[in-house]
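FIELD: query
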Amino acid sequence: MNRNQIKMEAEKLRDAGYSYNMICKHIGAAKSTLSNWFRDRPFTPNKEVLKRIQYGPIKSAEKSHNKKVREIQELKQVGIREVGTLSERDIWLLGLGLYIGEGTKAFENIRIINSDPAVIKLAVKWFKKICGLADENITVTLHIYPDNNLEECINFWSEVTQLPRRNFRKTQIDVRQNKSKIKRNKLPYGTAHIAAISGGVKEKGVQLYRRMDGWMLGALSQI
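FIELD: result
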């Protein structure tokens, strides 16, 4: 099974009331991985779990976990309300912050790199809405691992970016032998590199980069 299939199977078992230890034995995932996946997921132990563990402690753990889940969900909703509706200027500054943190700053290349689909969606929206780029001015290069399925990765990122396959450049496959398997398994679709190309129009290439450089200077100089 690939990582997504493992996660789906783990979700079924967790929702069926199985403990982390029992799920680990069944699918081979690390306990820390399960904890990360299900920290926001309510849990009710099934009869088999209750038989294996004393009823009092497991019920107490269940109550504590579900209380934490409710608190997390409530605070997330508070945060969503606090953000409110983003204006165009909000999106401009949000994308600029993303570029400051995740964008290239050398050789007048415009590129944002990330593995989070929501972040990549923001990058594409920012490129189009704020930077004035069209589909033909945006390319995608994937960096994946040997255990990633290339076709699945391309289809996934094409769906995320809403860009056609012709916008995808040659995929880079990390074949380093010393690369941590733990880190590799955390990126089921690899990393997407979203880049701007001018198509021969300076306003969408080198001139845009220099304007963006000014945006960064203008923002950071006020901090």
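FIELD: remark
The domain at 88-220 is CATH 3.30.1330 (60s Ribosomal Protein L30; Chain: A;).
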